[in-house]
Amino acid sequence: MLPMFFWAFIVGGFICVIGQLMMDLLKMTPAHTLSTLVVSGAVLEAFGLYEPLIDFAGAGATVPITSFGNALLHGAMQEAEKHGIIGVMTGMFEVTSSGISAAIIFGFIGALIFKPKA
């Protein structure tokens, strides 16, 4: 069990280091860095490399933002096989809707509990 935690920490940390280096060395804005990491996750999924990374690193690969790109493409391709071109859009929403809904709900609850600043 300890090696699983170790590799999750290393892989997740490495993804975060890449994002930090993009902002520090390449002077990318956080929005550009976020978009690049999401697209990178989708590209890795397209080449069949992200699922083996998830199998190896577990939460180290599913928690960072690259996993969102992976989920978008994975859902789109899965539903496109079933429903054709319309499945591309519905697949992206179906797979990512729970995470997006949770972020909205918990953000709202946090705003109710704590005093948000303008």
The largest pleated sheet is described as: none
Q: How far is it from the N-terminal to the C-terminal residue, by CA?
A: 44 Å
Domain count: the total is 1
Q: Tell me, what's the shape?
A: globular
Fraction of residues in β-strands: under 5%
The gist of it:
The chain has 118 residues and is an all-alpha fold. The chain has one domain (2-113). The protein has helices at residues 2-24, 30-46, 50-57, 59-62, 66-83, 85-113.
Describe the structure.
With 118 residues, this protein is mostly helical. It has one domain (2-113). The protein is built from six helices and no strands. The protein has helices at 2-24, 30-46, 50-57, 59-62, 66-83, 85-113. Helix 2 packs across helix 5 (66-83) and helix 5 packs antiparallel against helix 6 (85-113). The model has no long low-confidence stretch (mean pLDDT 89).
Properties at a glance:
SpoVA; 6 helices; 0% strand; single chain; mainly alpha; globular; 118 residues
What layout of secondary structure does this protein have?
Elements: H1 2-24, H2 30-46, H3 50-57, H4 59-62, H5 66-83, H6 85-113
Helix pairs in contact: 1-2, 2-5, 5-6
